[in-house]
Specification:
mainly alpha
């Protein structure tokens, strides 16, 4: 079912309203990062220790702190691209690059990146199968 021009215009206007809110929310989350560094005075903080500092500050296990830290970094890089991108491919590409960086920084286990890649591949495989067979949803 094809959408009318008015429906498309309404959807685009809704996205334009939500986009500044998401940018402001991301900035607020990023501004909370220096507070984690100040958990203890006279303590040096290295970039590799940031998830551990989150875990100590919020009194949570290390794995959720790693996911949280990776999510913040992914949001910083992916949000602007997702807002202005017409397709889903550029944000996915940037997301996997950022996840690879987080794996290299030991913020994220390797299996998390592999599982995410498999889920995305399966999502695209279903879409590709429908496109090749001509049974695309309209």
């Amino acid at each position: 079912m094809l959408r009318s021009k008015k429906e498309k215009e309404r959807k685009r206007n809704k996205i334009e309203v939500i986009s500044p809110f998401l940018v402001i929310l991301t900035i607020c989350i990023v501004m909370a990062l220096p507070g984690v560094h100040a958990v203890t005075e006279n303590d040096e903080v290295y970039l590799l220790d940031l998830p551990q500092k989150f875990a100590d500050a919020f009194n949570i296990p290390l794995f959720p702190a790693q996911i949280f830290t990776t999510g913040i970094i992914m949001m910083i890089f992916m949000l602007p691209i997702a807002i202005w991108s017409k397709t889903v491919v550029p944000p996915l590409f940037v997301g996997f690059v950022v996840m690879g960086l987080c794996v290299a920084l030991t913020w994220l286990p390797v299996w998390f990146l592999v599982i995410s890649a498999m889920v995305v591949a399966l999502m695209f495989a279903g879409g590709m199968r429908n496109w090749l067979s001509g049974t695309s949803e309209t």
